[in-house]
Design brief:
alpha+beta, Alpha-Beta Plaits, 2 domains, 4-stranded antiparallel β-sheet, 10 helices, 11% strand, UPF0750_membrane, membrane, N-reg_PII/ATP_PRibTrfase_C
Amino acid sequence: MKKYFKENLLITIGILLTAISLEYFFYPNNIAAGGISGLALVLNKIFGISPGLILIIANIILFALAFILIGGNFGGKSIYASFGLSLVLWLIEKYLSPTAVTHNLVLATVAGSVISSLGIAMVFSQNSSTGGTSIIAKIINKYLHLDIGKCLLITDFIITILAIYTFGVDLGMFGLISVFLIGSMVDKFIEGFNVCKQVFIISSKGEEIVKYILNEVDRGCTVLDGTGGYSKANNQIIFTVVNRRQFIKLKFKIKEIDPRAFITVNDVREVLGEGFTMLEG
């Protein structure tokens, strides 16, 4: 239950950040930063329909097509994220009358891209997505056999061309810059969420350290018997992977148990298995 609450809380925060970037940075400045949200801005300019309403209709159509054409194995979290974003956008437009935080196009592009990237990364980190062009990309992938990344690039490029036609070259190019900024920053943010510490501990008091890792840190570990190359002393080599908060806790405890312990620490970008992201997830 706690894990379910945490996942949905992070998805909700990600939805809110993405909505803020769209309604207070991109939309008021006519910056179409790719995706269905960019297409919604173009259609809003042409037909005067609320972008939030366009997103709701677009997601209904896209999910229906996905279920018909590719089976639609997206899960409840992706449905929640995609329609949740559409609903939040519609509510902001209806009740808050959003205006641009800045009309400086460079600042709006950079700030909007950073906020949007963080929001999208939070959603992606919970094995969810906001739908939109990712669904179109999967359909193209199935029938044209192109890589997903190339399919996403194709859909975003088409939307950018529409934005250039609708808003002019300058605004269209800012939208293209934002597409590339978001694409690169999302990966960096996701890496930041997933970074853990890979720890090797060599100590003569290994049993006490292992007990602390298992009972207090609540992580697993692997223990190997070792012999010092110079001292010939028998030691235990303990291998474990912990998150950053747990590592701080573990480091201070090791100092208390065995000040002479030898520790090596490495950052790891992704951990799969029990206690972390399961392989089948």
